[in-house]
């Protein structure tokens, strides 16, 4: 796996799940009809390897990966930290289910 793109998510101003969803939608370029819930986030991020679906403006190849660098992780509310970990874990699980390598690498910083 090679990192093809890096996205930086700064959690310093994210205090709740709704603001997390809004920031992820901006960073990844989710479509306007994005449902603002955990399932919708998973579906959209899963689309990084499927540009034809139009679920995200960030795209990588079928064998590449995306590094999600998260700043100020340790200071974020527990619910925000748990939600991010769950989202990425499930996205990568879906890729493994399709017999593909995980697509998202997490880089957590203070």
UniProtKB/TrEMBL annotation:
State the InterPro entries in the record: Barstar
Give residue ranges for domain Barstar (barnase inhibitor): 6-53
Full protein name: Barstar family protein
